[in-house]
Amino acid sequence: MKKVIILALALVAGASLYPAEAAKKKDKIQAATPVVVPVQLATSSDSVSYAAGMNATNGLLPYLIQQQGVDTAYIADFIRGFQEVAQAGADPKMKAYAAGLGIATQVRDRMLPDIVKEFTDSPDSIIANLFFRGFTDALQKDTTVFTQSVADAFFSKKQRADKAAKEEKLYGPNRDAGEAFLAENAKKEGVVTTRSGLQYKVLVKGEGEVPQKTDKVQVHYEGRLIDGTVFDASKKHGDKPLEFRADQVIAGWTEALTMMPVGSKWQLYIPYKLAYGNRNQGEIKPYSALIFDVELVGIANKK
Q1: Can you spell out the DSSP letters for 171-225?
Q2: Which of 29, 70, 146, 247 gives the lowest tally of CB atoms within 10 Å of its CB?
Q3: Quick check: pTM over 0.85?
Q4: What does the pLDDT look like over 185-211, one tens digit per residue?
């Protein structure tokens, strides 16, 4: 009997709470729905103004969906925000609030992901809520933790240190492998090492003129990683040799081209410092030593 009474009380309590919850939900739905007032177009200017407003929305929905990530199920909320800002006119309080919404979206969706990515795989990581707190404290000139200048100096120092640590973690083995390859390669017969560290081997000795740095050269080539992966070749760009100025390529190429007589074919072994350094070039990872077979066909401006 006692259980029945408790159950009955629970049902009564539930019945009394349900209308209240339903009313809250209803209030939320009504609050999100903009009040629609019938349109009255009494003059030509009225009609032009109304049509101009409709015309201004061309392309807006795709933009909201694709660029702003707005779910069209909540378009009423977008309209409510639009109306609040549009009807506020020059109210400085609303102008500041609207600017805050816009900047927050940019910081959250663009700036923060870039910084998080930058520090990924480094000794430190970016914590979103502390990032936002630092952002707002700086705007309010709150120096409890850092002054602006100290924060800037600290962040720059950590940014450099973490970048170096990240590069060492991700690409240090690649650099070491390249240096080991070049050290062994230098011992091979026919391989010449220059003062800069460039290595080359003459495959075909040409008898023509040697280009100057500013000459436009004509070359056939194939580029490989030290594991033999071909990442580029002139034949990928057509049957004719490629033309470019001798000083508009990586440093290892410029040095070699300005030593090669026309008609020569050399194999180049280029350390990362004379190639792309710490830059990521797709298949060519940072700190990569490279191998090129280069045939100097001619000098375009000295036919």
Answers
A1: HHHHHHHHHHHHHHHTTSTTEEE-TTS-EEEEEE---SPPPPTTSEEEEEEEEEE
A2: 29
A3: no
A4: 999 999 999 999 999 999 999 999 999
